[in-house]
Design goal:
Blueprint (H helix, E strand, L loop, with lengths): L1 H10 L32 H9 L30 H4 L2 H10 L33 H11 L6
Helix pairs in contact: 2-5, 4-5
């Protein structure tokens, strides 16, 4: 329980996605197939910047990623190298939006869901960690991580 609170707290260090309006999405067969951000595709470079920003909501808090010269990687979550070879875009999008729909007991925070969360400080309530575009950017980066 303490570890779960720590992870949620770390996820909120950089603050919520400012001014982000939630885009409706449909979960079907364990995936969100349609992009959240509409017609603008995600940008892998922006996604890499997001997942490695230790002053904000970094995936490196919990996961090992194939990022050269990055010493501060966590070991709580599974390693993400090769994730695109093992998991489709729709499932990865759902994992980012609300991983509890796939893994109910996960400690991974919901990066886009704002309802049903417990212990969220008042300034962050009702605001996602990532905007729809940031979800698509992180997804675009993760989709570059294929098995070699």
């Amino acid at each position: 329980m303490i570890l779960r609170a720590l992870i949620l707290g770390l996820a909120l260090i950089g603050g919520p996605a400012a001014g982000a309006d939630l885009v409706p999405y449909v979960v079907r067969d364990g995936a969100i197939d349609a992009p959240l951000a509409g017609t603008e595709p995600g940008d892998p470079a922006r996604g890499l910047a997001l997942v490695s920003d230790m002053n904000n909501v970094s995936c490196l808090i919990c996961h090992v990623l194939p990022i050269a010269d990055e010493p501060d990687m966590g070991e709580i979550g599974s390693p993400l190298d090769g994730i695109a070879s093992r998991t489709g875009a729709g499932e990865l999008r759902l994992r980012l939006v609300d991983s509890k729909q796939i893994f109910p007991d996960t400690m991974m925070p919901s990066y886009y869901v704002v309802d049903g969360l417990v212990g969220v400080d008042a300034p962050y309530a009702g605001t996602p960690i990532y905007s729809a575009q940031q979800i698509e950017d992180v997804l675009a980066y993760l989709l570059t991580l294929e098995e070699m």
